[in-house]
Design a protein that fits this description.
With 125 residues, the chain is mostly helical. The protein has helices at 11-87, 90-112. The chain is built from 2 helices and no strands. Keywords: Coiled coil.
Length: 125
């Protein structure tokens, strides 16, 4: 039986082959890691840009709210001043309403009491 030429496999040739394979695998792993690192750095750059944009918008909103609060305070003060100018002080306005309501109640009570009776329920003579 003729099996052809046989190369002798020595431990050194096996070690060299394995070293070449390991070296190629290491190169592939390093290239893969570099690619993943580049992707991560790109995502990080996008996240930082987004954070900067959101921070800018937040500061803009804070300024807007401050302006609105100032405007609200001004308008409330002007409204109060106009009310006081038209109707006088609050106590005076409340006194007017109390007087008005008492007169209305008195008029209503007068209409409900039959002719000839006093407000205390006694018959007038």
């Amino acid at each position: 039986m003729c099996y052809g030429h046989r190369r002798s496999v020595s431990p050194d040739s096996f070690a060299q082959s394995r070293a070449r394979r390991t070296e190629n695998e290491n190169v592939l792993v390093v290239e893969d890691l570099r690619g993943r690192l580049a992707e991560t750095e790109a995502r990080l750059a996008r996240a930082r840009a987004r954070e900067a944009e959101l921070s800018r918008r937040l500061e803009e909103m804070k300024r807007f709210v401050s302006v609105m609060e100032i405007l609200e305070t001004y308008l409330k003060r002007r409204f109060r001043e106009q009310q006081e100018h038209l109707f006088g002080s609050e106590e005076k306005w409340m006194s007017y309403w109390a007087f008005y309501l008492m007169n209305k109640l008195h008029n209503m009570a007068s209409q409900l009491i039959p002719f000839g009776l006093s407000l205390k329920g006694e018959v007038a003579v």
